[in-house]
Structure formats: C-alpha cells, structure tokens
Write a structure and sequence with these properties.
- There is one protein chain.
- The protein is 23% helix and 38% strand.
- The chain contains two helices and seven strands.
- The model has no long low-confidence stretch (mean pLDDT 82).
- The protein is globular, with a radius of gyration of 15 Å.
- Strands 1, 2, 3, 4, 5, 6 and 7 form a seven-stranded mixed β-sheet that branches.
- The N and C termini lie far apart (54 Å).
- The longest helix has 18 residues.
Length: 120
C-alpha cells in the first residue's frame, strides 16, 4: 500500500482543463495547436514557459500562457501560434497540468511551448 502511494506521488497525474478566453482577453494573442501543419511568415522561433503553484489547473495553465506571451513579446513577437502543453510523453494542443501530489489537491505545474510570430 505504501509503495502505491509513493508511486503516485512521484509519477503524478495529468489534469485537463479549458482556458476561459472570455475571462482573460489578454490571451487573445495565444492560439492553441490545431494539429495542422502551418507556416508562419514572420516566425521568430520557438518560445517556452511554465508555471506552477497552488489553485486550480485552470489558473496555473492561464499563468503559463501569460508567461509564454511575455516570452514571445520579449523576442519581438506579437502573437504565439501553435501552442502546445507538455503531456507525459508528448506535446498536445489541450491545456494540461501535472499534479505531483495526487493526494494533495491544488498543487499543479505545467509547461508550454509555441511559435512567436511578429505579426498576423
């Protein structure tokens, strides 16, 4: 029984959420990946960011997107396209958070990447 608890605590679990863009208009310049291959003419390269903390997965994922947008703007970008969240073994276009301590709700972490674009 103890080994199961230790395994869950070290592996963690993923929680999926939705980003409420209506509540966060500053994130209008962030577009999640659709799965289609796209080229961006004013591509400034990949940017990455992360966030962690207490609260809900939604609040941590929203903070990670804010951090990603700030990173893109620091590189001269206006928008971030093809944004993906880190899953267990791959990147996905769905907002995901890792909860490192499944028995302690409210402690989340997430990592995102996207393409910084100078203009639309």
């Amino acid at each position: 029984m103890v080994s199961v608890v230790v395994a869950l605590a070290t592996v963690g679990c993923l929680t999926r959420t939705r980003i409420q863009y209506s509540e966060h208009p500053e994130l209008a310049a962030v577009r999640l990946a659709t799965g289609r291959l796209e080229s961006f003419p004013r591509n400034l390269g990949m940017v990455e960011a992360g966030a962690s903390g207490f609260g809900t997965c939604r609040t941590v994922a929203t903070q990670a997107l804010r951090n990603l947008l700030a990173e893109a703007r620091a590189h001269g970008g206006k928008t971030v396209e093809d944004v993906k969240f880190r899953a267990q073994w791959h990147w996905t276009g769905h907002a995901l958070c890792r909860r490192f301590f499944p028995l302690l709700p409210g402690v989340y972490s997430t990592h995102v990447q996207g393409v910084a674009v100078a203009s639309e």
